[in-house]
Amino acid sequence: MSTKVGPKGQVVIEKEIRDKLGIGPGWLALQREVDGHVEITFIPPEHNRSLMGVLAPYIKGTIPPGDEAWAKAREEAWEARAKEKFGEANHE
Known about the structure:
Number of helices: 2
Order of helices and strands: HEEH
Helix content: 25-40%
């Protein structure tokens, strides 16, 4: 696809490309010249939406309040990761 450069030097990013990359209004377009062509990187705007709950699908249980419960959970997590990475035989 090709588009013409407008009178103010503006170029339209094709809708298909915007949709594929998820580019929307308010995004920042960083431009730089690389070997005789223009490279554009898009950065989404900051948002004010809450991130609360985004990890909920990955939580497998709850930990009761208290230092001992957290210490035990941390120990079990490290143990599980060590077994996963190094195998059962190397971890006792």
